[in-house]
Design a protein that fits this description.
single chain; 480 residues; alpha/beta; Rossmann fold; Hypothetical Protein Tm841, Chain: A,domain 3; 3 domains; 4-stranded antiparallel β-sheet; elongated; DhaL_dom_sf; Dihydroxyacetone kinase family protein; transferase; DhaL_dom; glycerone kinase activity
């Protein structure tokens, strides 16, 4: 359960709750008998959970899930008896602390809500009481606080202050992006990562251990936050969300309820570098690892995270067209107007995003973006994994392949030569702008050689180069 919570955690509250569950699990399984817990063991587990959660937050604040967790541990420490009595005491202590959170954080009091993470913890403790006693405890009483449906509504009313904002924060504007990712890294690298991310933004929470971590931070430079993760280890399931104008908050400690934006772009991207590029252009991104295409449910969640009335969806992969269509249909049933532009490559998505204008009518914006994507021919250079018949002949494992519009057009042994041949064939039909997206595995000299070739042979053509990160292809090419 703790591992599942770590993998699936969303936002500040979910990330901290995952650490609370992990802290409890560490104590309860320490004796080697994970199937049984005594009252004393449960007390120790609750205390360790509260302490480990505070350690995971860069700047703990009272009136949050941290306060509720500490209150639960304090109440458990004073309880006599077995697990049932300890669990009930922890639940009652947490419930009382939750009811007091609006008086501890002005943002909660102003919005008329309790802390979302604290509410989630009380719900977990209620389930624990039911497990030990067979009886459902009474409902959570929240005097003078407006109850909202679902954790998302509660969280939005006070993020990031609910868990991570500094007590004396008084800045007029907070960071523009929320960056979340899972990270495979060693403890020492994570310690350095904490320091770097803390300097980049706020709302920093890093939870986990044993080589797997969940990282959450609010920053203005989303690319730097992702790059910090790359330097620390292997980040994946990267989610970058632009708060948008409706998310602007008056102070870091007092963010008003989030307004739903009129329009947003949601894009599937194949690498961390592209994720940062898209996010800086205002898109909500979903990272697709090689061999790990996102499911329809993940796309629906990305559309929800965009928090907009109108959404333009860019799958950026021909294989995702049915998945994206199913996600769009599901989102429409939830009242979101969704337009699916069938982009087949991330370079087509870049072209579409470049002409995106949220101020014009939705249909006009979709037509312009669709036209830009359709006018962009796409190619990629990759390495064959096994012997295969292709439209260009037989390839062997390890051969360099050049694909144009999804079909193998060139087979060779040198990345630069194959890339140059692909580029020449694409530009033979004309073009004004070449977009190159280099993966981490691509030789660094490839971009320089291709840029030089364009300058020398195609005088009227411009070139732009991006770093895509750990994308599946060595090189993505777009010609507009």
């Amino acid at each position: 359960m703790a591992h599942g919570a770590l993998i699936g955690a969303r936002g500040n509250s979910g990330t901290i709750l995952a650490q609370l569950l992990r802290g409890m699990a560490q104590v309860l399984t320490a004796g080697g008998d994970s199937g049984r817990a005594e009252g004393a063991g449960l007390r120790r587990a609750l205390r360790h959970a509260a302490a480990s959660a505070r350690q995971a937050v860069a700047h703990p604040v009272e009136g949050t899930v941290l306060t509720v967790a500490s209150a639960a541990a304090d109440a458990a420490d004073g309880a006599e008896g077995g697990c049932a009595e300890v669990a009930r005491a922890a639940y009652e202590g947490a419930r009382a602390a939750l009811a007091a959170t609006p008086g501890q954080l002005p943002a909660l009091e102003r919005a008329g809500v309790v802390d979302a993470g604290g509410h989630g913890l009380v719900t977990v403790l209620a389930a624990l009481v039911e497990t030990f006693t067979g009886r459902v405890p009474g409902p959570v009483a929240v005097p003078h606080a407006r109850a909202e449906r679902g954790g998302e509504g509660l969280a939005d009313a006070h993020a990031p202050a609910g868990e991570c904002a500094t007590e004396t924060a008084a800045e007029e504007n907070g960071p523009a992006f929320e960056v979340i990712y899972l990270l495979e890294a060693e403890d020492a690298a994570v310690a350095r990562l904490r320091q770097r991310l803390d300097a980049l933004g706020d709302s920093l929470v890093v939870v986990g251990g044993d080589g797997l971590w969940n990282v959450h931070v609010h920053v203005d430079d989303a690319g730097a936050a992702v790059e910090a993760g790359v330097e620390a280890g292997r980040p994946y399931r990267i989610r970058i969300t632009h708060f948008g104008h409706g998310d602007a908050h008056t102070t870091k400690a007092e963010r008003p309820p989030r307004e739903r934006a009129q329009r947003a772009v949601v894009a599937v991207v194949p690498g961390e570098g592209l994720a940062a590029l898209y996010a800086e252009a205002g898109a909500t991104t979903l990272l697709a690892r090689p061999g790990e295409p996102p499911a329809s449910g993940e796309l629906v969640q990305a559309v929800r995270r965009a928090h907009a009335r109108e959404v333009v969806l860019l799958p950026n992969d021909a294989e995702l067209r049915h998945t994206a269509a199913a996600a769009a249909e599901q989102a429409r049933t939830e009242g979101i107007r969704v337009a699916l532009i069938p982009t087949r490559s991330a370079v087509q998505g870049i072209a579409a995003l470049a002409v995106h204008e949220p101020e014009r009518r939705f249909d006009e914006d979709v037509v312009a973006m669709t036209s830009a994507a359709g006018a962009t021919r796409h190619a990629e250079v990759t390495v064959a994994e096994h012997q295969s018949w292709t439209t260009a002949g037989i390839c062997q494992a390890g051969d360099v392949l050049g694909l144009i519009d999804g079909d193998v057009a060139v087979i060779g042994a040198d990345v630069s030569q194959v890339a140059a041949t692909v580029l020449d064939r694409m530009l033979s039909a004309g073009g004004e702008l070449v977009t190159l997206v280099l993966g981490d595995a691509a030789p660094r000299a490839v971009a320089d050689r291709l840029e030089a070739r364009v300058r020398e042979a195609y005088l009227a053509v411009d070139t732009v180069v991006y770093r895509g990160g750990r994308q599946g292809a060595l090189l993505l090419v777009g010609v507009e």
